[in-house]
From TrEMBL:
<comment type="pathway">
    <text>Porphyrin-containing compound metabolism; chlorophyll biosynthesis.</text>
</comment>
<feature type="domain" description="Uroporphyrinogen decarboxylase (URO-D)">
    <location>
        <begin position="191"/>
        <end position="207"/>
    </location>
</feature>
<keyword id="KW-0627">Porphyrin biosynthesis</keyword>
<dbReference type="InterPro" id="IPR006361">
    <property type="entry name" value="Uroporphyrinogen_deCO2ase_HemE"/>
</dbReference>
<comment type="similarity">
    <text>Belongs to the uroporphyrinogen decarboxylase family.</text>
</comment>
<dbReference type="GO" id="GO:0004853">
    <property type="term" value="F:uroporphyrinogen decarboxylase activity"/>
</dbReference>
<dbReference type="InterPro" id="IPR000257">
    <property type="entry name" value="Uroporphyrinogen_deCOase"/>
</dbReference>
<protein>
    <recommendedName>
        <fullName>Uroporphyrinogen decarboxylase</fullName>
        <ecNumber>4.1.1.37</ecNumber>
    </recommendedName>
</protein>
<keyword id="KW-0210">Decarboxylase</keyword>
<dbReference type="GO" id="GO:0015995">
    <property type="term" value="P:chlorophyll biosynthetic process"/>
</dbReference>
<feature type="domain" description="Uroporphyrinogen decarboxylase (URO-D)">
    <location>
        <begin position="72"/>
        <end position="81"/>
    </location>
</feature>
<dbReference type="GO" id="GO:0009507">
    <property type="term" value="C:chloroplast"/>
</dbReference>
<keyword id="KW-0149">Chlorophyll biosynthesis</keyword>
<comment type="function">
    <text>Catalyzes the decarboxylation of four acetate groups of uroporphyrinogen-III to yield coproporphyrinogen-III.</text>
</comment>
<dbReference type="Pfam" id="PF01208">
    <property type="entry name" value="URO-D"/>
</dbReference>
<dbReference type="InterPro" id="IPR038071">
    <property type="entry name" value="UROD/MetE-like_sf"/>
</dbReference>
<keyword id="KW-0456">Lyase</keyword>
Length: 412
């Protein structure tokens, strides 16, 4: 980091806040870059280091590569507007931020699909932008424009607003995860999630949702030192946020690099991958038994590069054939996905056949059944119920015995 950037941030020169590595040393405290006289505390991190257990949820076992009898299943955006019960609640509480930042509402919404469909994963109802105010980036969500950041970061001067993450401001996330863990018990995995540094940075630099990403892509060349500093700050904040979620009860964490697919592969290698890898390295040291999932929308050109981040599971979007994805990634890493969400608008027999095809292509180990993207608005709830019914009915022993009879030369 240049001296000018360090000065702009107002951090002590002794701060270990560089792209090449976070300070995780030998203690259970992750050091964050502290402003002089900063009121923000360091956060003590202690994750469970217990060995894998037969009592672990099915999804956790599949993510780790343990033998399972069927693929566990959950859906991205499985809580949301396609459910009538959610729409009714949203009428009463019209603010998305209120719904996603109030413990009672978070728990109620997160459990809606669990009570209706019994998925194998219950993901906390939240947003990838939720932690932004906790490290100095306020935002609003407008009905038409979506997320809006009134003070985007474009310069060294703008970096002064950043500070280490204050996890006290995210207590509603921790409290919600603890309650979800109690409510679900051992019947499903409780899932937490975060946005990857590059994806979060797109909002902070662009100031809102965009389809072109011209400001941040240009910044890679015009203000690279500012962007690197921003990404490093996000890396440390997101790392602490993940560990906080694990401490609070999350069995598994999904990292969404939603807009990583907007970068050319060589640019993703430079501007996204190193920061994801830093996060994974630290979390794996602190929480070695917690599976990490990486999902990128439009990841067909990035699969092999994603594998190098060290995550346990790669999520495939529906534009990648599952058989091709499995071949490219190999059998030593788990995969998640990847039924096209549009199949949920098809006749049930077509949906059933596609689920079976995806599972056969993925193989009998290391697969978490999911959609290749989130549930679409307007999706029939009956189709979601059918998806999970089919998933629960599958048995690897039967499925692959039948497949072997059809195709004697099939190699799984």
């Amino acid at each position: 980091m240049s001296a000018s950037v360090s000065s702009a941030l107002g951090w002590k020169s002794s701060s270990l806040f560089v792209q090449s590595g976070l300070n995780y040393g030998g203690s259970n405290v992750i050091s964050v870059p502290a402003k002089a006289n900063s009121p923000h505390r360091k956060f003590s991190v202690t994750c469970s280091t217990s060995s894998p257990s037969n009592d672990d949820p099915l999804l956790v076992k599949a993510a780790r590569g343990d033998p399972v009898s069927r693929p566990p299943a959950w859906m991205m955006r499985q809580a949301g507007r396609y459910m009538a019960i959610y729409r009714k609640l949203a009428e009463k509480y019209p603010s998305f931020r209120q719904r996603s930042e109030t413990t009672d509402l978070i728990v109620e919404i997160s459990l809606q699909p669990w009570k209706a469909f019994r998925p194998d994963g219950v993901i906390i109802f939240s947003d990838i932008l939720t932690p932004l105010p906790a490290f100095g980036v306020p935002f609003d969500i407008e009905d038409v424009r979506g997320p809006v950041i009134s003070s985007p970061i474009h310069s060294e001067e703008d970096l002064k607003s950043l500070h280490p993450i204050d996890l006290d401001k995210l207590s509603f996330v921790g409290e919600s995860l603890k309650i979800l863990r109690q409510e679900v018990g051992g019947h499903a995995a409780v899932l937490g999630f975060v946005g990857a540094p590059w994806t979060i940075a797109t909002y902070i630099v662009e100031g809102c949702t965009t389809r072109t990403y011209t400001k941040i892509k240009s910044m890679c060349h015009t203000e690279p030192h500012v962007l690197r500093t921003l990404l490093s700050h996000l890396t440390q904040a997101i790392t602490e946020y993940i560990i906080y979620q694990v401490q609070s009860g999350a069995h598994c964490i999904q990292i969404f690099d939603s807009w990583g697919g907007q970068l050319p592969p060589d640019m993703w290698e430079r501007w996204s991958k190193p920061y994801i890898k830093e996060i994974v390295d630290v979390v794996k040291k602190r929480c070695p038994e917690t599976p990490l999932v990486l999902y990128i929308n439009g990841n067909g050109g990035l699969l092999e590069r994603m594998k190098d981040t060290g995550v346990d599971v790669i999520g495939l979007d529906w534009t990648v054939d599952m058989a091709d994805g499995r071949r490219r990634l190999g059998s030593g890493i788990s995969v998640q996905g990847n039924v096209d969400p549009a199949y949920l608008f098809s006749p049930f027999n077509a949906l059933t056949e596609e689920i079976q095809r995806v599972v056969r292509c993925a193989g009998p180990r290391r697969h978490i059944l999911n959609l290749g993207h989130g549930v679409l608005v307007g999706t029939p709830e009956e189709a979601v119920a059918h998806f999970f019914e089919v998933a629960r009915s599958l048995e690897f022993e039967t499925l692959f015995r039948d497949k072997s009879a059809e195709e004697p030369n099939l190699v799984v």
